[in-house]
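Look at one such:
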Amino acid sequence: MTVTPLAITVLALLNERDMHPYEMYQVLQQRRGDRLVKLRPGSLYHTVARLDRDEMVVAVGTDRDGNRPERTTYAITDAGRRTLRERVTEMLGQPVREYPQFPLALAEAHNLDRDTVVRLLTDRIGRLEQDLAELDASRTAVAELGKPRAFWLELDYLRAVARTEIDWLRGTVDELDDGALPWITPDLVRAQLTRQARD
């Protein structure tokens, strides 16, 4: 079975304590939202069902709260714990090409005019600064709760990545603004090639 990031998250939650999927969803929303995994209720329930089928989790009880649907509580199995340890070990030690969209957009940005690129990168800086402020607030909140840093180490990593990207983007926008990074569009390339062909 391919263990997806959401499956790793479910296994990690159940390694803490038994839970039903709705509770998992609530805990993840409270802790991280969509920062680490794409979190949708349907995907979460599907992931739990798949882990159950593959004997990495097991149903340990059901309950009903008033008129609400019955909720099944799950526990992690020994196989689930082994899988969790193996995947986290592998992910920590092995860099993987993840093919994010932004480097591709940068590689193809020359298809847009310079002013549009400057505007888009500036907008991106603003959004990243908002993300950074949210990360800072989250970091402050968990620190004030006295939670050990080992439980929120990813916040520091995400903050460092956001800060580095903001700094790089600002430098690139400055280079575009002052002409240190000359902008070449496909039209300019075609014109230059046409001139060279004539000469």
